[in-house]
Design brief:
266 residues, alpha+beta, Arc Repressor Mutant, subunit A, 6-stranded antiparallel sheet, 12 strands, globular
Length: 266
Amino acid sequence: MASRSAPVDAVRIRGSALPGLQAIAAESSRSFPRHMHDVFGIGVMDRGGQRSASGRGAVEAVRGDVITVNPGEVHDGVAMRGEARAWRMLHLAPALLSEGVPPGFELTRPVLSDPALRQGFDRLFAAVVEGDDALALEQGVLQLLRDAPGARAPESPKRVAPAAMERARARIADDCIHVPTLAELAREAGLSRYQLLRGFAAAFGLPPHAWLQQCRLSRARRLIAQGRALADAAAGAGFADQSHMTRAFVRFLGFTPGAYAAARCG
């Protein structure tokens, strides 16, 4: 049975002439645990299907559907029927959107069945793969987001996390290497360790250590994008060593740090 086979994994990553825009084509039967990205993601399912749960609800995406994810949105991904699915994604740094969309912009629909939007995605994805110049790519990004149904600036503020939880998150995010213990975080918040653990997960969708892992992944990607050697990026992000970083990349992102570095340099 497909569900008992070894995971199918094939990932191609392509950088672009426009900083902050990246194209990814993937095929995998792997289940991805809850994780997050620090970029917007817009993609298309090319084959098979996927179930995913995030702050925007539980959804299913099948061939031809447009899929989206917002920066910082905790989500997972499971292949339907355990069979390999194939998809393409465009990752867009929030800075690319700073002038083209309203403040507070977010994508509100995680799955869309919209042929016109899919065609717009296909054009921009092809432009990245074909190596178009930054001007053409920037125009394509803004057109794609402008035309995306369900894209809006929130009319009301999102639920604000308690101040104690925000402080705990800031402590973790500020230093991925010298990380406080759960007891230290709880003491600073004036809570028990259990209260801190439960409150943090309720506020941010992940318990503290899982959030730390995502912070380390984001920092490692930034360091690699700056041209740092993989071993240096691993150390600078707080991983025990390069192999530890590689395992985290594959588990949560589906590709290796080396593949990511090659795409950024290409």
